[in-house]
């Protein structure tokens, strides 16, 4: 999300207040090409909300938007030819490719910003679902007023090509999938006069969410906010996380794990297949759950607690659907053969 530090329309403290009212646990700010909010000391706990500050870098052509976190020096990506994807990693940080396959064409003022640097291997994650991109890509002259009035109902599914790409990359190495709202809260003037707010933070925060699974609860103490941020960042880097569309309900209790006779694995982990692996899904409620292996749907069951027995090696993830729309998307568990 973005604040008044770049092209958002609310200051950080107001955004955090909204997050507090909505009971979010953490927020990651990614203003364009600046981490000034961090240098201004805004990272930390605000009652029950933890704020982390990264930034969204882009190149001189305003392409290759990169959500980067956990380093302490500004990178001037716009002006220089520096390979900021590797630089972030070399500085000890990590990064996530933003809206990689963006293809919106409807509003000249907002051209698409796709990713073109696929040869780089320095990134750790891909934003597989971006609220703003999906909203704008689906826009037509016929539906634009409906979409302004129903922003949450306009969000239906991540892009197929992004999911395919993400699965394929994971067959080679672990790359975390996250979901982002890319909230800015634009102000449009009706008839050039009356200000009207679209993509309000309050509404965006009730759509796509990324949930992290941490080994221990966060301390919640301001004196330890760096440790808590580290815990969140470690979970994201490890792919111990999943994505949900809050429109269909709170997905906090979702779990996806793998068990063998003598081992168990969480999302992001690998597990060795000695005879058979059981993949266990706990849905927040009874739902249609699809098991995807190496990018292909291989099994499908409906229920709250579901078990899939699998024999083949591969990268496995699940999607839980409501009304044939994704509600929850897990990260991958990697099953390897003993040899
Ligand atoms: Zn962007």
Structure summarized in a few sentences:
The protein has 339 residues and is of the alpha+beta class.
List the helices and strands and how they pair.
Layout: H1 12-21, E1 26-32, H2 36-39, E2 44-46, E3 49-57, E4 66-69, H3 84-90, E5 94-97, E6 125-130, H4 131-137, H5 144-149, H6 160-170, E7 176-180, E8 186-190, E9 194-198, H7 201-204, E10 208-212, H8 225-237, E11 241-245, E12 255-259, E13 264-266, E14 270-273, E15 277-293, E16 296-310, E17 314-322, E18 325-330, E19 333-337
Parallel strand pairs: 1-3, 5-6, 6-7, 14-19
Antiparallel strand pairs: 2-3, 3-4, 4-5, 8-9, 10-11, 11-18, 12-13, 12-15, 15-16, 15-17, 17-18, 17-19
The structure holds zinc ion (ZN).
Task: List key phrases describing it.
8 helices; 339 residues; binds zinc ion; alpha+beta; Immunoglobulin-like; 2 domains; 19 strands; TIM Barrel
Describe the structure.
This protein is an alpha+beta fold. It has 2 domains: 12-206, TIM Barrel (Alpha-Beta Barrel); 251-337, Immunoglobulins (Immunoglobulin-like). The chain contains 8 helices and 19 strands. A hairpin with a 3-residue loop joins strand 8 and strand 9. The mean pLDDT is 93.
């Amino acid at each position: 999300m973005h604040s008044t530090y770049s092209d958002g329309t609310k200051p950080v403290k107001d955004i955090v207040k909204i997050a507090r009212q909505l009971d979010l646990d953490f927020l990651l700010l990614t203003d364009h090409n600046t981490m000034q909010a961090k240098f201004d000391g805004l990272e930390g706990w605000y009652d029950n909300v933890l704020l982390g500050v990264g930034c969204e870098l882009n190149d001189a052509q305003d392409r290759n938007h990169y959500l980067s976190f956990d380093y302490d020096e500004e990178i001037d990506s716009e002006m220089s030819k520096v390979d900021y994807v590797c630089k972030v990693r070399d500085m000890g940080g990590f990064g996530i490719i933003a809206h990689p396959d963006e293809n919106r064409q409807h509003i000249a003022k907002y051209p698409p910003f796709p990713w073109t640097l696929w040869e780089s291997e320095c990134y750790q994650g891909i934003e597989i679902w971006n609220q703003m991109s999906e909203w704008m890509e689906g826009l037509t002259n016929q539906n634009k007023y409906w979409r302004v009035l129903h922003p949450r109902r306009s969000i239906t599914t991540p892009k197929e090509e992004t999911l395919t790409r993400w699965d394929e990359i994971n067959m080679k190495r672990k790359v975390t999938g996250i979901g982002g709202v890319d909230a800015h809260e634009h102000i449009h003037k009706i008839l050039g006069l009356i200000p009207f707010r679209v993509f309000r933070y309050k509404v965006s925060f009730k759509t796509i969410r990324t949930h992290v699974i941490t080994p221990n609860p966060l301390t919640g103490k301001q004196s330890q906010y760096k440790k808590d941020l580290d815990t969140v960042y470690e979970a994201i880097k490890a792919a111990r996380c999943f994505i949900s569309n809050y429109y269909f309900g709170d997905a906090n209790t979702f779990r996806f794990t793998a068990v063998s006779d003598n081992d168990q694995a969480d999302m992001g982990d690998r597990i060795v297949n000695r005879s058979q692996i059981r993949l266990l899904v706990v849905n927040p409620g009874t739902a249609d759950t699809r098991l995807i292996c190496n990018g292909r749907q291989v099994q499908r069951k409906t229920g709250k607690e579901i078990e899939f027995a699998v024999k083949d090696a591969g990268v496995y993830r699940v999607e839980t659907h409501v009304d044939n729309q994704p509600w929850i998307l897990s990260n991958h568990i990697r099953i390897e053969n003993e040899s």
